Amino acid sequence: MKPEQTPFTDAHIDAILQDRKLPNVSESFSKRIIEKAETVPQSEPTWLTIWSEITFIWQSCFSLSPAKIALPVFVVGILIGGLGAQDTTPQTISSYFNQAYQYGYTP
Amino acid sequence: MHKLTDKELLSLIQQGSHLAFAELVERHSESYYRLAFRFTNDNQQAEDIVQDAFIKLWERPKLWNENKQTQFTTWFYQVIINRCLDLKRKKPHFQIESINEINLPANHSSHEEQLVHLEMQVQLETLINELPSRQRVALNLCFFEDMSNQEAADIMNLSLKALQSLIMRGKNNIKNRLNSNISN
Questions:
Q1: Per-residue pLDDT for B20 more than 90?
Q2: In Å, how far are A27, A75, B131 from B6, measured between CA atoms?
Q3: Measuring CA to CA, which residue among B42, B159, B168, B15 is closest to residue B100?
Q4: Domains along chain B?
Q5: Which one has a higher pLDDT value, A59 or B96?
Q6: Distance between CA B25 and CA B12 in Å, rounded?
Q7: For B18-45, what is the mean pLDDT?
Q8: Are residues A37 and B29, on separate chains, in Cβ contact within 8 Å?
Q9: Whole-structure pTM value
């Protein structure tokens, strides 16, 4: 018996709706959209473009954004720099005095 | 590789990142295309709708406003559906053009079975297309891939109950039309 000869029930309708098929999208479809976008400028020109590309690549590799990493790196840099300065300053001053003593300086 | 969220990608797109845009398109274009095809039954129209929507997003990325607390995918489904409905308003005469391109399931082995299936599908698409637009949207969303009724309700800005009522009415309309075709 063909399906169209029997009255349709709710279950039939559900089955028919579930069975709706879709075509496969062509592989180049997304590529075409991306290429088209490359020829279209954004309405609000931005100077952040290069930074945004760097951020994208960075964030694709690491979970933290470069902006979030920049602050701790800056703080650590200051600390290391500070410690280094503490370490070298007395040596520099004493070397001046040593030189002065060599030339006959007496305080 | 760390996978960026849609929100992160959109924030980079708003700063002009082509790479982020490419990633977003690769991630979502296929499912939006399939949804557009549900409404248009036409390959070319479905592709045009999705392409135009993405290009519009690229041109004006601030159209998506994260402060409205809508997920990007939900918002973009709304964009695609609105474009499909606009097209239907502009071109009300519905013609199924690409349905032959749909791969029929392998279990419809004989030629006769395939023809019956194709005929049924054409009839169904025509009936769905003649439904009131809200019923059509509800049916297209609820029988679309793995979309839950709650997601469909969010996309349509409806309560779950209101969506279920639309689906029920849509299915009843289709059933009555099919049954009246039998009796005629």
A1: yes
A2: 22, 31, 34
A3: B42
A4: 1-95 (1.10.1740.10), 107-184 (1.10.10.10)
A5: A59
A6: 14
A7: 93
A8: no
A9: 0.75
